[in-house]
Design goal:
- It contains four helices and four strands.
- It is of the alpha+beta class.
- It has one domain.
- The longest helix has 28 residues.
């Protein structure tokens, strides 16, 4: 009986499907130093977290559209600076990144709309990005709700 319980507990985690934005470390991609510096500056300016002291020197970046793609190219990406951060989305278009705020659904959609107005994308790409944004907003809502219930945060953004 103990062996069956041990096997069950060993196999169970591999059968569970993680949320789309709860990505494992092996799914991260390597980004150019210039992009990392932009992300660090954004985090310092918007979250008040200093990344200079090496406490958060590594900010993992994930390809939100295709997690199997490891090359940094034009696309939509997700990054987070810590376990209590729901993360943020950004779009890379020809080496220029546009980081979306994440304080509200309105802010994310406003940032995306501003990006669409200034950058030409095919309609299928716009729809694919919007699908990722929708998934992210659902993930962020659930994550903030969980952090609020656990007492890690006092109120949602």
């Amino acid at each position: 009986m103990k062996i069956l319980i041990f096997l069950f507990l060993t196999i169970l985690p591999s059968l569970c499907i993680a949320q789309k934005f709860n990505l494992a470390g092996r799914k991260q991609i390597k980004v150019p130093t210039s992009v990392s510096l932009q992300l660090y500056k954004y985090i310092e300016a918007n979250d008040g977290i200093s990344l200079v002291n090496d406490q958060f020197a590594f900010v993992p970046v994930y390809n939100a559209l295709s997690s199997s793609e490891k090359q940094f190219s034009d696309g939509i990406y997700f990054f987070t600076w810590g376990s209590h951060d729901s993360g943020r989305l950004f779009i890379n278009k020809k080496g220029k990144i546009s980081i979306f705020g994440n304080s509200s659904v309105l802010e994310i959609l406003t940032d995306y709309n501003a990006f669409i107005k200034t950058n030409k994308l095919t309609e299928s790409t716009q729809i694919a990005y919007l699908n990722i944004i929708s998934s992210f907003m659902k993930y962020r809502y659930d994550d903030q709700k969980m952090l609020l219930q656990s007492g890690v945060i006092i109120k949602t953004k």
